Amino acid sequence: MSRFPVENIRNFSIIAHIDHGKSTLADRLLEITGTISSKTDNKQVLDKLQVERERGITVKAQTASILYNYNDKTYLLNLIDTPGHVDFSYEVSRSLSACQGVILLVDANQGVQAQTVANFYLAFEAGLTIIPVMNKIDLKVADPARVAVQMENLFDTKEGEIIKVSAKLGTGADEVLKKVVDSLPAPVGSRDNPLKALLFDSWYDRYRGAILNIAMVDGSVSVGDKITSAHTNKSYDVKEVGIMHPEQTPTSTLYAGQVGYVIAGMHNIKEAQIGDTLYSAKHAVTPLSGFKPAKPMVFAGMYPIDKSDYVSLRSAVDKLTLNDSSVSVSIDSSPALGQGWRLGFLGLLHMDVFNQRLEQEYNAEVIVTSPSVPYKAKLLNTKANRHDYGQVDVITITNPTLFPDRQKVSEYYEPIVHGTIITPDDYLGKVISLCLSKRGEQMEFNYIDDKRVLLKYKLPLNEIVVDFYDMLKSATSGYASFDYEDAGFEPANLVKMDILLNGKVVDELATIVHREKSHDIGKAVCERLQETIPRQLYQIAIQAAIGSRIVARENIKAMRKNVLAKCYGGDITRKMKLLKKQAEGKKKMRKIGSIEVPKEAFIAVLKR
């Protein structure tokens, strides 16, 4: 790879809405260049995780270096296939830092979707060259003319500039490669300068430790070199360098402009800090700016089902968070579930995928508590508050059990997002009604062509984080798309809702809700628990309470034994005596009995 001058290198990502064909296009580009052999089973070659193949979505951005012969020159193209779901937008933003351009992919049938718009602005703000590509032109229902109008209205792209392809059949894929070479700038960097490399991703290997994905900015790195981390100020000996071709392919040296991997014996996984700058131990350099830290939008408690698995689960969580740096971790404990963690995720799908990866890759069985979003509270300046919270005026609440009493607070704040919805105008009424039911406030209304509408709403995050996406898809027969971005905090009338089983509070099921929605949410939670908690020999009362006020209640009836079966007649007092004895026994059991809340009950409340 040393024979490639910087001007013959192109680094680019493929970005799009979910299910618009990014991974399929990546497969065809790898086939055309001979990086992989042409086989019928070449599907999602870069989707290496089991969860990605099962769900048919990309979760992790994956790199592949390919060689392309064009105009009697050989080019080194570094391709990054990125996720398309809003929950994994942090993967996209990190991947763009290693690129000089992007392929913006749009489905010729579905058209521009909400995440397409979000990804376009990520690339635009990063100052990257954008190549517009329209995919799935082979479909009978494709409407390229309509989609071209949408792209012109939203991205100011002329129809003649759009490359039309069928990633499934390979039609037009060669045109994409030619455009990449002709349009994208080469990386800016010098191989004569001291080493400077950006660590933009990493994963863990049980035998070789942390494997670092790096974008070479300046200089070169070879096996045997000593490199230093700007984050930890520790030095490491380089054991192996190489490129992804698409599997790990060792090379002797990586040079400025290339994207590759480095193994340097980092066995403490916390040392591999995403956004870190690596430089030669002989020459100190000014660190690169790195990335904005990911801002978790959803928090949930995670506990081992078997408490003896705590140590192995801690190791699994550490290794998986190295691979997914957007997850925040803090230690937590629960009287019912023991020691665990409070994890922050970018969304509910992100949380679900993280849980599934724990089970598949590390054989870990966990209980995940009901998700909540981070809230803030402005404290009253009292002596008691200063004793509890120090001199802090505003606190952030990620765990409902730590929600402060109203008497200590002057104002509560909830997180707000700016949501973008693109929908056919046939479903406009249903979409507007749904947004209003979620306390939404309309900000923008535009037709992007003669049938599709772009709506922008200001929405409370806790209203959309659990079931909004599913409800939107149901209301629009699957045609609408949704994306959101953080918009800070606004004052709100918030209360803590406790769940009681026979008068005893279950801390893990506590939630923070808007006062207007407390009855509806409380009733829904009680009904779910009624369906999932097994019946006992005594009645169980499930209650949702705000302070001392009960807002919803459901009962689980007791299992009954017919104690009168042996009575074939006789005086009524004999039957009454047996029934009274049974009632007293059930009353006693209710006092001393403990109610086991199964994992299914937590999951039922989780999905509310």
UniProtKB/TrEMBL annotation:
PROSITE patterns: G_TR_1, G_TR_2. SUPFAM superfamilies: EF-G C-terminal domain-like, P-loop containing nucleoside triphosphate hydrolases, Translation proteins. It is found in: Mitochondrion inner membrane. The lineage of its organism: Eukaryota, Metazoa, Hemichordata, Enteropneusta, Harrimaniidae. HAMAP family: LepA. Keywords: GTP-binding, Hydrolase, Membrane, Mitochondrion, Mitochondrion inner membrane, Nucleotide-binding, Protein biosynthesis. This is Translation factor GUF1 homolog, mitochondrial. Its main location: mitochondrion. PANTHER family: TRANSLATION FACTOR GUF1, MITOCHONDRIAL (PTHR43512:SF7), TRANSLATION FACTOR GUF1-RELATED (PTHR43512). Its EC number is 3.6.5.n1. CDD domains: EF4_II, EF4_III, LepA, lepA_C. The keyword Calcium does not apply. GTP binds at residues 16-23, 81-85, 135-138. Belongs to the GTP-binding elongation factor family. LepA subfamily. SMART domains: EFG_C. It is a peripheral membrane protein. NCBIfam families: lepA, small_GTP. Gene3D superfamilies: 3.30.70.240, Elongation factor 4, C-terminal domain (3.30.70.2570), Elongation Factor G (Translational Gtpase), domain 3 (3.30.70.870), P-loop containing nucleotide triphosphate hydrolases (3.40.50.300), Translation factors (2.40.30.10).
